[in-house]
Specification:
By secondary structure, the chain is α/β, with parallel strands linked by helices. It folds into two domains: 2-123 and 312-325, Rossmann fold (3-Layer(aba) Sandwich), CATH 3.40.50; 127-307, 2-Layer Sandwich (Dihydrodipicolinate Reductase, domain 2). It has ten helices and 13 strands. The strands form three sheets. Strands 9-8-10-13-12-11 form a six-stranded mixed sheet. Helix 4 links the parallel strand 6 and strand 7. Helix 1 crosses helix 10 (309-325), helix 5 (126-142) runs parallel beside helix 7 (201-213) and helix 5 packs across helix 10. It is globular and about 60 Å long. It starts with a strand and ends with a helix.
Length: 329
């Protein structure tokens, strides 16, 4: 089982390597891939040293699975080349997510749609993954009519440059800026680039990807995505309007029974999800469950998850695990 990790030295790539090791994924040979400036350097994985190679060298090795986390342009150019030699690509960028021929997968929800013919598989956006995992069982029972989403997203979702910007600003050092404004002691209502409709790409990912994963284009969705100076994970306030009325205790039971979801919801003990608790964990944490008293059949939820793990690397590795377990590679 040769496994290539494209973007092995990036924030998500390094977490992918950690998770492959933590979950004892059956790697017979690791093929770490990074940019030209990193080629020739070495990394240690499971107490073995591997040399970082370029994309062409990785393709020549014909890996069974390639985990991509190197941006959309790299994925658009190179994923088909890997697929052509028989490699199954699991891509963490936005490049393939809305291609109707490419599955967009959260394993707990829709991995069963995968077949051997799927040589490129898309990993959803981090903010989408945690939300749909919390919503999928509720949608099956009550049918979601509308979602109003506000996100509070970690700087780690932007990358190493943003992490360094925050560190610089906290210590009074002038340096390269990942954002158009300071992020320290600030909140930026600007995640990714703006589209023609006035929404950012991050906000529209929540709309389009949610409809695709839940296989329901009728769900009305609106979102505001905000970047905040935290590093533990993404937080989301989600207002859910159902087509039918719901029972709050049933909602709790459904969430408790959802694999990968942990309910933290006890206002008597001030128990609710927070990034400091989600950091370095794979679960999606849900709390502040309460009826929206201003609208019929409506629920308010607070959802938190580590965006580098379940929001990216863990979900990618879980897809790979499913492929191996079901002999699809």
């Amino acid at each position: 089982m040769k496994i290539a990790v494209i973007g092995a030295t990036g924030l998500v790539g390094t977490v992918m390597l950690t998770i492959l090791e933590e979950r004892n994924f059956p790697v017979s040979e690791l093929i770490p891939v990074a940019s030209e400036r990193s080629v020739g350097k070495t990394i240690v994985f499971k107490n073995k040293t591997y040399t970082i190679v370029d994309l062409a060298t990785a393709i020549a090795k014909q890996p069974s699975i390639a985990l991509f986390s190197a941006g959309s342009s790299t994925s658009l150019e190179w994923a088909p080349k890997f697929a052509k030699v028989g490699t199954t690509v699991i891509d963490n960028s936005s490049a393939w997510r809305m291609d109707h021929t490419i599955p967009l997968v959260v394993p707990e929800i829709n991995a069963t749609q995968l077949t051997k013919a799927n040589k490129i598989i898309a990993n959803p956006n981090c903010s989408t993954i945690q939300m749909v995992l919390a919503l999928s069982s509720l949608h099956k029972l009550y049918s979601i009519k509308r979602l109003v989403i506000s996100t509070y997203q970690s700087i780690t979702g932007t990358g190493v440059k943003a992490v360094q910007q925050l560190k610089n600003e906290m210590t009074g050092v002038k340096g390269e800026m990942a954002y158009p404004y300071p992020i320290y002691e600030n909140a930026l209502p600007h995640c990714d680039v703006f589209e023609e409709n006035g929404y950012t790409k991050e906000e529209m990912k929540l709309v389009r990807e949610t409809q695709k994963i839940l296989d329901d284009r009728s769900i009305a969705i609106t979102a505001t995505a905000v970047r905040i100076p935290t590093s533990g994970g993404h937080s989301e306030s989600v207002n859910v309007a159902f087509k039918t009325d719901f029972d709050l205790s049933t909602v709790r039971h459904l969430l408790n029974d959802t694999p990968g979801v942990v309910v933290q919801d006890n206002i008597d003990t001030n128990t609710y999800p927070m990034p400091i608790y989600a950091k370095d964990k794979d679960e999606v944490f849900v709390g502040r469950l309460r009826r929206d008293e201003s609208q019929p059949n409506s629920l308010n939820m607070w959802i938190v998850s580590d965006n580098l793990r379940k929001g990216a690397a863990t979900n990618t590795v879980q897809i790979a695990e499913y492929l191996v377990q079901h002999n699809l590679v």
